[in-house]
Design goal:
The chain is α+β, with helices and mostly antiparallel strands. It folds into four domains: about 10-240 and about 410-470, FAD/NAD(P)-binding domain (3-Layer(bba) Sandwich), CATH 3.50.50.60; about 245-320, Elongation Factor Tu (Ef-tu), domain 3 (Beta Barrel), CATH 2.40.30; about 330-400, Helicase, Ruva Protein, domain 3, CATH 1.10.8; about 475-585, no CATH class. The protein has 15 helices and 30 strands. An eight-stranded antiparallel β-sheet has the order 23-30-26-27-28-25-24-29, covered by helices on one side. The chain has a six-stranded antiparallel β-barrel with strand order 13-16-15-14-17-18. The chain has a five-stranded parallel β-sheet with strand order 7-3-2-11-22, sandwiched between helices. The longest helix has 21 residues, at about 450-470. Bound molecules: flavin-adenine dinucleotide (FAD). The site of flavin-adenine dinucleotide (FAD) has 37 residues, from α2, β3, α3, β8 and α8. Its cofactor is FAD.
Length: about 575
């Protein structure tokens, strides 16, 4: 069986030079859905015969995904289309330092808890395929040294986001990914041959070009255009709403305290339209008073967890802050009464229990909220005021009147529902060879490097899948098995196949087809079984890799098992429950 897939490019008033960037890419044969297997090997060295991946968006997810795809499949044509400047958010992120990831969340279950949208779905293979440690290793392998701060945030040692930007752009160029800036992907449709016909516009109105791509990775962040592209391909979009913002509080006296910070408060957000109990709407951590309200990690986390409900309530609600969370409610009154006795002749403003760990300016604010003038002596403070002070310290109510801005980080909740993609591969469940990564998905994290980690992980998984799909494959036949000798991690494996191959190869990926029903009909569930093999040595006797040129290839694992369900380790002989295998040559 063979496929001839013609490639076409229709430049409309576009420059020939630009058109040529794409014209180097061609096609290789690849089995379509329902085709059991196909042998293909000759195109590898032929110029102009590769497949093409177009990445929409040169942000963290798009660039990382493009690098990964091209690394896995060097012969794959990879083009990134970016409407503005590449990696512009990386550049401004973390106050110009770029909080690359979080180093305190090694456990994927704990990591997933930092994503108000995605916390359930991301508990699976997503972070075990490429988590914070993989990100840290990737950057250090590529020359960017990183450091982990006390709160877990990971930054470049240089304290400059340029280190991250320069590294990614250098790598992109080094491996031959084409980055085209100032161009917008305006439209996309599918062709009869199962490709993507992509309309690209340049700012200057008379420039339009059409490109046909084999793979499409939409990594357009929170851009509306990206959502439109997704809907053109049959996806739905969860309405995008802001996340990670400060709370506007109309309180002139509070505003006077701008700059006062609390290392630890416990804050609870109550919204009229939310009846259900949400434990995440209570947060503990540092808080900051600003000119127009409240900010700091506690507030940002509340804004993230409450993002959708805050949006529907018009950003109105009640916030209850416990300023002394380490003291029990019943202990606070005796502490104040003791203080009253001991300092009866002193002004209430000038002395307050040191156990509270408060600053004088804030104590004055609390007294004023209780209508106690600063000159009042402790002896004159009535006992019912003591009870009110306890309440203000332990459960101080603030009216949230609106949404502020948070300059250091801002993300969008909403996007493509995770139910519409496979997180094992980042492939769409609606369209084959369509992928999503990063903020375009309905995933967002709290502050601390979690949002970039989503972009790196998604980009990496999508890039791996595309690279493996876009490489050159030799089908090996039905239900091969391998024999492990020492257990999985350091094992030598022998692949048995009923087919002959006659190729000298340097590196192999062996892919198994996934369970078709479970994986929504995808013919390759690459990330489920992805083993990287190195070829070396020979072994006497058949039946392994019968071939004229290479008899009995010995393949040794040299990579990490990627995916959620690798076969169990340490067994003498194992069989993967799959229909067919491919060798993937890189
Ligand atoms: C000020 C600020 C600081 C931040 N700091 C941090 C931080 O320190 N740590 C952290 O983890 N997160 C941080 N974030 C969040 C983080 O930047 C995002 O989560 C992350 O950038 C998402 O990556 P992405 O690649 O999915 O999207 P983006 O980075 O938004 O990239 C998408 C790209 O696609 C392009 N694009 C969109 N549509 C099209 C189209 N149709 N055609 C062509 N190009 C298109 C856009 O121009 C953009 O460059 C910060 C966010 C902001 C706003």
């Amino acid at each position: 069986m063979s496929f001839t897939l013609s490639r076409f490019l229709l430049p409309f008033g576009g420059s020939l030079q630009t058109a040529n960037i794409f014209s180097n890419y061609g096609r290789i044969l690849f089995p379509g859905r329902g085709v059991k297997f196909i042998a293909y090997s000759t195109a590898r060295t032929q110029q102009g015969n590769e497949q093409l991946l177009v990445v929409v968006g040169g942000g963290a997810a798009g660039i990382y995904g493009a690098i990964r795809a091209k690394t896995v499949a060097p012969h794959l044509g990879v083009v990134v289309i970016e409407k503005g400047k590449p990696l512009s958010k990386v550049k401004i992120s973390g106050g110009g330092r770029c909080n690359v990831t979080n180093g305190h969340c090694v456990d994927k279950m704990i990591l997933a808890e930092h994503y108000p949208r995605g916390n359930k779905e991301l508990r699976g293979s997503f972070f075990s395929t490429h988590g914070p440690w993989d990100t840290i290793s990737w950057f250090s392998d590529h020359g960017v040294e990183l450091k982990t701060e006390d709160d877990g945030r990971v930054f470049p040692v240089s304290d400059s986001s340029s280190s991250v930007v320069d590294c990614l752009l250098f790598e992109l160029k080094r491996i031959g990914v084409s980055l085209q800036t100032g161009k917008t992907v305006a439209n996309v449709s599918t062709t009869a041959g199962g490709k993507y016909l992509i309309k690209i516009e340049k700012r200057s109105i008379d420039f339009i070009e059409y490109v046909e791509a084999d793979y499409l990775l939409i990594a357009s962040g929170s851009s509306r255009q990206g959502y439109t592209l997704a809907t053109q391909l049959g996806h739905s979009v969860v309405d995008p709403v802001p996340s990670l913002f400060t709370f506007k509080i109309e309180d002139a006296q509070l505003a006077e305290l701008a700059g006062v910070s609390f290392p630890k408060v416990k804050a609870k957000l109550k919204l009229e339209n939310v009846r259900r109990q949400m434990p995440q709407l209570t947060q503990i951590g540092p808080m900051l008073i600003t000119h127009w309200g409240l900010s700091g990690p506690v507030i940002l986390r509340l804004s993230a967890w409450g993002a959708r409900d805050l949006f529907s309530s018009g950003y109105k609600g009640k916030l209850y802050v416990d300023f002394i969370p380490d003291l029990h409610l019943e202990d606070v009154k005796p502490i104040l009464l003791q203080h009253k006795d001991k300092f009866a002749k002193q002004k209430a403003l000038n002395s307050f229990p040191p156990d509270f760990g408060l600053v004088k300016r804030f104590w004055k604010y609390i007294l004023e909220r209780e209508d106690l003038s600063g000159d009042i002596l402790w002896a004159s403070v009535p006992n019912n005021s003591i009870i009110s002070l306890v309440s203000l310290l332990k459960q101080c109510p603030f009216g949230v009147k609106g949404k502020g801005q948070f300059k250091d980080e801002f993300v969008t909740a909403g996007g493509i529902p995770l139910s519409e993609i496979s997180l094992n591969t980042m492939e769409s469940r609606k369209q084959l060879k369509l992928f999503f990564a990063g903020e375009v998905l309905n995933v967002d994290g709290v502050t601390g490097g979690f949002n970039f980690q989503n972009a790196w992980s998604g980009g990496y998984i999508a890039g791996t899948t595309i690279g493996l799909l876009g490489g050159i494959f030799i089908a090996m036949g039905n239900r091969p098995f391998w024999r492990t000798f020492k257990g999985y991690s350091e094992t030598s494996m022998w692949l048995k196949t009923d087919r002959s191959i006659g190729l000298l190869v340097n590196e192999l990926h062996v892919l198994a087809s996934g369970n078709k029903e479970k994986d929504g009909g995808g013919y390759l569930s690459v990330a489920t079984y992805d083993f990287l093999f190195k070829v070396g040595g020979t072994r006497e006797g058949s039946p392994f890799f019968n071939s004229e040129d290479v008899n009995n290839l010995r393949v040794e694992t040299s990579g990490v098992i990627v995916g959620s369900s690798p076969p169990e380790t340490g067994r003498e002989k194992q069989q993967i429950d799959s229909d067919f295998f491919f060798l993937h040559l890189t």
